[in-house]
Amino acid sequence: MTTTAVAEERQAEDVPGFAQDARANVSFARQPILNRDNMLCAFELKLYQAPAAESGEQEAQAGQPEAQASAASVIIQALLQPDVRAALANHPGYLPVTRELLFDDAIRSLPAERFMLELPPDIVADDELISRIVELHGRRYRFVIDNVAQANDTFARLLPYADAVKIDMHRIPQAMLPKFASVLKSAGKLLIALGVESQDVFEQALDLGFDRFQGYYFAHPQGAAARKVSAPRHALLNLLQLLGGEPTVAQLEAELKLNPVLVMHLMRLANSSGLAMGRKVTTLREAINATGTNRIARWTQLLLYADGRKVALEDDPLLQLAATRARFMELAVQRLPEAGRDETDAAFLTGVFSFVDSVFGGSLEHTLNVLVLSKPIRDAILLREGVLGTLLTVVEALERGAWADIESACERLEGLQVLDVAQMGLVSAAWAGVADRSAEATGLERIED
């Protein structure tokens, strides 16, 4: 698929595109923050600022006083772009701030209700800073003390003005953690556990009364206790295997008839505004023809990750991660030389199945064998080999906000720079959010376990 075709497809789906000014040298990655019910409730934004040579026209302007007047203004303007807004999917953004950013009047352009301002633990908490925080607090801006590992003088000065405290679960002394958490909870602070990458750490923080959890524990098999393999999920897996072999309409019809829930979803998908052909689809065969096997396959792949509870799909962290990663892989491979439709489809599959063990448990290799994926896709997922493996490494680094790792991987990919990667990450997140918020109309609904 060409870049033009992708743009047309994105426009047809009402998905935000690369809306930021091409001259901008600022972008963001996002990291999920979950609540006690394991649902998305916020994202932390990780800033990337491109070197002058990567930012095109910005380099030529670097010596002008206007260009140097306010680095904070550039960051704020980037935050207000449509792609960033859409990538947050109606969730608040947690924004790490510097002293310079706090004192720049451009910060008043940020909608106070949409952002939490994260104060670094090493910020100079002098009287001037406290006065500025008090002023901004009066304008309804909310503050978080970030990355706390000890209760030092800076922490003590900032605490009265903070709504929330982020505690590094790996750096804070374990002996003091229970008492520390108890005191902060008694003071009415929102507690956020930072660095939650395993079910054990999540359960520890949960038992201590933490309110929010930042990390990717939910994408690991041990974090999927609530996602038990169910008959509907096995039905989805069987359908995926059939779709992988270019089935006839009759074969698809026979498989779907064994699963009434899938039929219901497909009928809703076929009658959505984007697919309806001027009349209501009333038979299963009409629904298959109206939807097409490619769209049915993608719909089925994403449904594998849907949580069984009745929650909004934009709040489902695993589904959002799968959709965003798959879309990123698809967009990124199209930026590389000689990428065609086959490469695009393979890239989407690589992204969507790269952590399918989080749903089914057991070994990733076994699950990939059941799915009968091609060798390049398997090698990309299991060994990080080939172009697809490199792109998978890139998107995983993007999810961590690990810009140096992205830069290193981009050296092996002709045509991709770090800023491109960051922007495609935002566009992919926006696509996932838009797709899921319109789920009720388009048939992308969760399968009940």
Automatic annotation (TrEMBL):
Domain HDOD: start-end pairs: 229-419
InterPro entries for this protein: dGMP_Pdiesterase_EAL/HD-GYP, EAL_dom, EAL_sf, HDOD, RNase_Y/CdgJ
Record's protein name: Cyclic diguanylate phosphodiesterase
Pfam family, one: EAL
